[in-house]
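quick one, 448 residues, struct below
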Amino acid sequence: MKPRATRGASSYFPILLIVLAFFLASHLSAQNLWTEIPLPVTNTNLSAISFVDSVHGCLSGNDGIFLYTSDGGNSWSVDTIPSTFTKCALVSSNVAWCFGFGGVTPGQATFFRSSNKGRTWLRKYYPDTLIVLGADFASENTAHLITPTYSWTTTDGGDSWHQRGRLLGSSPIQYYYPHQVEFFDDSLGYVGGTYPLVGGDLWPQMTTDGGVTWNHGYVGIMGSGGSTINNGSGPLSFLGNNECTFSFGWSDEISTQNFGGLVLSWNRLQDTVLLGPQMNFFNSYLTGSALNRQNIWLLRAWDRKILRTTNGGTTWAIDTLPVPVSDFLLDNDGHRFALGAGRLFRWNGIILGIEPSQELPKNYELMQNYPNPFNPTTRIEYQIPNREFVTLKVFDILGREVKTLVNEQQSPGTHHVEFDASNLSSGVYLYRLKAGEFIQQQKMLLIK
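---
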């Protein structure tokens, strides 16, 4: 019998070196994932980050400080807002909104708007009988707010406000009020609250008609002990492909199950999955964000550390920064920032499953559709250099609108959409792109 070959210790040595090198690299990279970005001021009240595209962003704090960048965060200018505030957002390269929560006293909340990169600010007023609990800023002129019972909208930069739809349920108790409103585009929006309302109405609530009507946001799922996790919501954070994620749910107040779940939702909150780790005192979260259903970041409440997963919540890495984190930014524009105690940090790791970003367009352009002439479908492609609210509409030769193809905020890059004209008659049609202040129109020919 031929003797079986055996592997000596020297044969294992290269394998051991590879394993050791991999371990050391992983260990070292974990220690050097974050680098600090110098800021021009020392202000421990800086608490929020907002970017509108790959280069334009702001930092803000509740004492009125406002920092602006136009180079992706490498350098910052400093200005102030004549009020304290709880939320500030840059909605274009020039325009920013700020909202100051006024508690449950009517007329005490404040709105400010800047049209020159935060250098000067104008206060915007709303009916002083309202108790304003939250605000969302969609574009240069459009913003939404919520009261205990209604949503309100402005489309003229805050000069006038219009009551929209009534939220489901109501409660005279402050504990049960809604606390957050977020709109993805002109139509799709969500309102979050913490506990179920009188009559069993639940959070989050969703609108698909710009706030005219509100409905239950997502179907309940089962947690440990059989509790249904659909009666509360924490911060809601949108994904770039019209998904919504992060609704925090707790079992009902009288349940013996001390259980809470982190719910990741998609398809406009109709499909949900429960993520770990299980929520309790040591695993409750202030905010969350996701690039997709696998790459998710959370900010843990009790120790202000960032938790990261690359496999949809199966395993989590915990990042410890030199200071407690107050806010972070993870988005499809390539931003990976954390802010805490007035110090800004950039994450230098690699997001698994995300392709390296390509060079961004330098100009706006609406391309000719292809094929053209067509029957009955054609592809329309366009590019935008900045994050903008984009509309793409089709009109007949008389200028009558026949279809809206795009109506949402979009990141810089090249985009495309398929147009199906199966229900239209032959003829010449126009398609028009509007992105911020840019407008371009092209013709196409349908031949059946």
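The longest strand covers residues 401-410.
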